[in-house]
């Protein structure tokens, strides 16, 4: 149980285009999902907290107009990178919080590798 | 402020020898602490978690960690390393009622034959 999927697993896009990444909790409901960014050989950096039915909360320094987050259902959150540039190339990982379990444990998706050319 | 410090960026061991990955935390609250493993180009897998029920926590794949409040440590150990243990390991904290996870910088474990 407690599986989180991401789609696509990897994507290549041209500079100036937008790309959408999906994060799904497959066997539990997640009122809260998190989006992280990971540069090569570095730790995860929290970008934003996504709450179902409300606006996302962005961490300091993260451009909310560039990284659009939508959490329209209890099992799906999407991250759209708008007008992508090569510096947006990174590994994006989502996690989902199972609010029905003690400890509010987060379950992580497998990640999406974005390459902007 | 809460923080998690992994004391070693790289650890190298021989197959069959013990593994020790060190983690210290700083928190004003009784923390929840986790160890996650990440294999190359993969997401994070939970190895174990501490949530104040027991100070010695056993996880998957033979890993365990001991919460020591006096030392503010949560070191990860395994008696005998396998080649498949080679990966990046993250010590992660969550303080009090906050939802956010605080990640350590990571420790890359190499296992040699």
Could you outline the blueprint of secondary structure elements for this entry?
The complex is a heterodimer of chains A (117) and B (113).
Chain A: E1 4-7, E2 10-13, E3 19-25, E4 32-38, E5 44-51, E6 57-58, E7 67-73, E8 76-81, E9 90-97, E10 106-108, E11 112-116
Parallel strand pairs in A: 2-11
Antiparallel strand pairs in A: 1-3, 3-8, 4-5, 4-9, 5-6, 7-8, 9-10, 9-11
Chain B: E1 3-6, E2 10-14, E3 19-21, E4 23-26, E5 31-38, E6 44-50, E7 56-58, E8 64-68, E9 73-78, E10 87-95, E11 102-103, E12 107-112
Parallel strand pairs in B: 2-12
Antiparallel strand pairs in B: 1-4, 3-9, 5-6, 5-10, 7-8, 8-9, 10-11, 10-12
Walk me through this protein's architecture:
The complex is a heterodimer of chains A (117) and B (113). Chain A is mainly beta and 117 residues long. Chain A is 0% helix and 52% strand. Chain A is built from no helices and 11 strands. Chain A has strands at residues 4-7, 10-13, 19-25, 32-38, 44-51, 57-58, 67-73, 76-81, 90-97, 106-108, 112-116. In chain A, strands 2, 4, 5, 6, 9, 10 and 11 form a 7-stranded mixed sheet that branches. Chain A has a 4-stranded antiparallel sheet with strand order 1-3-8-7, with no helix packed on it. Chain A is globular. Chain A starts with a strand and ends with a strand. In chain B, the strands form 3 sheets. In chain B, strands 2, 5, 6, 10, 11 and 12 form a 6-stranded mixed sheet that branches. A 4-stranded antiparallel sheet of chain B has the order 3-9-8-7, with no helix packed on it. Chain B has a two-stranded antiparallel sheet with strand order 1-4. Chain B is mostly beta strands. Chain B has strands at 3-6, 10-14, 19-21, 23-26, 31-38, 44-50, 56-58, 64-68, 73-78, 87-95, 102-103, 107-112. In chain B, a hairpin with a 5-residue loop joins strand 7 and strand 8.
């Amino acid at each position: 149980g407690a599986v989180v999927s991401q789609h696509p697993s990897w994507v290549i896009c041209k500079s100036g285009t937008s790309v959408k990444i999906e994060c799904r909790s497959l066997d539990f409901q997640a009122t809260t999902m998190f989006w992280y960014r990971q540069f090569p050989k570095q730790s995860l950096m929290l970008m934003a907290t996504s709450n179902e039915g409300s606006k996302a909360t962005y961490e300091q320094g993260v451009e909310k107009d560039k990284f659009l987050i939508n959490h329209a259902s209890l099992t799906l959150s999407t991250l759209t990178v708008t007008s992508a540039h090569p510096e947006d190339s990174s590994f994006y990982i989502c996690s989902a919080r199972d609010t029905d379990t003690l400890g509010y444990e987060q379950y992580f998706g497998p990640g999406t590798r974005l390459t902007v050319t | 402020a809460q923080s998690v410090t992994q004391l070693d960026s790289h650890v190298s061991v021989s197959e069959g020898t013990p593994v020790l990955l060190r983690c210290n935390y700083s928190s004003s609250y009784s923390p929840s602490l986790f160890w996650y493993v990440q294999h190359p180009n993969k997401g994070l897998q939970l190895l174990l978690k501490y949530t104040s029920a027991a100070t010695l926590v056993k996880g998957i794949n033979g890993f365990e960690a001991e919460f020591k409040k006096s030392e503010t440590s949560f070191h990860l150990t395994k008696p005998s390393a396998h080649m498949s243990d080679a990966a990046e390991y993250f010590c992660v904290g969550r303080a009090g009622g906050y939802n956010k996870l605080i990640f350590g910088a990571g420790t890359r474990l190499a296992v040699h034959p």
